[in-house]
Amino acid sequence: MGTTTGTARSARTTRSTDTGVWRNWAGNVAARPVRSVAPASTGELAEALRAAAEDGLTAKAVGSGHSFTSTAATGGVLIRPERLTAIRSIDKAAGTVTAEAGVQLKHLNAALAAEGLSLTNMGDIMEQTVAGATSTGTHGTGRDSGSIAAQITALEIVTADGSVLTCSADERPEVFAAARIGLGALGVISAVTFAVEPVFLLTAREEPMPFDRVMAEFDALAAENEHFEFYWFPHTDSCNTKRNNRSQGPAAPLPAVRGWIDDELLSNGVFKAACAVGRAAPAAIPGIARISSRALSARTYTDIPYKVFTSPRRVRFVEMEYALPREAAVEAIRELKATVERSSLRISFPVEVRVAPADDIALSTASGRDSAYVAVHMYRGSRYQEYFTAVEKIMTERGGRPHWGKMHTRDADYFRTVYPRFTEFTQLRDQLDPARLFANDYLRRVLGS
Sheet of 317-325: strands edge to edge? Predict the structure, then answer.
């Protein structure tokens, strides 16, 4: 039998006149809307969209601001998520949970764990809202399990005319095929239903490994482990690998002190200080990287999924990530390493590599093909353009698809060449938002006008 939880609603007009500046988490995107609204129900959300249309304004929903692109930026009506935060139902028998758009993944995970349930796969942070994470294609790593959006079984969306539309594989399947990763272009998601399963244990094995060995064994490591990823430290020949596999237990979490030292002191505190030194004195970065990579040690622990998949991320950065056909990954990563080594670039952040199986979502970066993700980062405030430009060239030469929420320079003409279902998506957009209520500069670039 299902259980239901929720938050109290309070009356508040959706015609707010708040004109403050909105900024994303990284601080590289800012917007000043005409007004900002925080609807507390699907009805209030519909009212806000109808009011925006009547006033000749565009409307965009924001989540927690963890995208590095301006996908949510607007000079019209900004729809904030903080009052659409009910977990409407948890149905153990059906294996589903329905959460409103503004529920953060950390709260969803805690609620599921309390009921003995879990998502199958996750990315590595929990701060995003469910609608923001799914709309931009947030993913973790998985041999058989895909992105968070691939775990959706139904959506509730408010469209440009204020209508409330529901979709699933059986109800409006053409909308479901597109809206799970909809970029905010098809409507505003008000609730998401995910497939869940009984909570299980994962054993994480983290181990330093030489770069050449990781490249030689990449296909085997991805095939032999349920969840494999690695980090390569630029200016070194060192990687840190992570293999997560289901376990019969018993649970053996990281000891509190070890976890704090590794994940807070080293990965956040010391790393932030090292990044600050590197930004002020770039010549010091290779030496810092060598020391950092040598400081790594193996560790193994067993815990419930979200405590294994996710880590705190307190050092602010900007990021670019591309999804490649799986078979192109090793060559691309080797070229990336060679590019860094023959250049004057100084890179303080490790390069993150993950995998995902093919899925059936129109604009998923894994749509129709097994994929490998290559993510590059730079400390906030550092010069990133030369590095990201070099990375993007390597990725696009291999048909790479950029993460929709991370920095890139691609446009609609490019996406038509790498997404076989691109026109399917844009035709649905024409049907659901012909007047472009949800348009902004980013969507005009990546989808066309």
Answer: 299-303, 201-210, 238-247, 227-232, 351-356, 371-379, 317-325, 401-402
Token reading at 196: 């869940």
Is the pLDDT at 291 greater than 80? The verdict is no
Q: Please answer whether residues 56 and 42 qualify as being in contact, where contact means their C-beta atoms are separated by less than 8 angstroms.
A: no
Give which of 177, 210, 201, 216 is closest to 253, Cα–Cα: 201
Residues in the chain, overall count: 449
Rounded CA separation 21/16 (Å) = 14
**Of 61 and 298, the one with more pLDDT:** 61
With b for 16 or more beta-carbon neighbours within 10 A and e for fewer, the 371-386 pattern comes to bbbbbbbbbbebebee
Residue 108 is which amino acid?
L
Residue type (1 letter), 162: G
In the DSSP assignment, the letter for residue 252 is B
| Rounded CA separation 3/16 (Å) | 34
Structure tokens at 310: 């996710």
Bridge partners for 372 per DSSP: 324, 355
Question: Mean pLDDT for the chain?
Answer: 92
Distance from CA of residue 12 to its chain's centroid? 31
Token look-up 């599921």 returns 112
In tens, the pLDDT along 128-144 reads 999 999 999 999 999 99
The pair of three-digit structure tokens given for residue 225, joined into one six-digit string: 């482990």
Give dist(CA 320, CA 67) in Å, integer: 10
- Can you give the pLDDT at residue 281? 85
Q: Each residue of 358-367: b (16+ CB within 10 Å) or e?
A: ebebbbbbbb
**Of 299, 324, 368, nearest to 218 (Cα)?**
324
Say how many Å lie between the first and final Cα of the chain, rounded.
Answer: 47
Contact 126, 310 (CB under 8 A): yes
Give per-residue pLDDT as tens, 72-85: 999 999 999 999 99
Contacts of 269 (CB under 8 A, 6+ apart): none
Is residue 355 pLDDT above 60, yes or no?
A: yes
To 10 degrees, what angle do helices 329-341 and 385-396 make?
Answer: 150
Q: Distance between CA atoms of 69 and 442, rounded to whole angstroms?
A: 8
Confidence check: pLDDT of 2 > 50? no
Rounded to whole angstroms, the Cα distance separating 138 from 323 reads: 12
Model confidence, pTM = 0.92
| pLDDT attached to residue 201 | 98
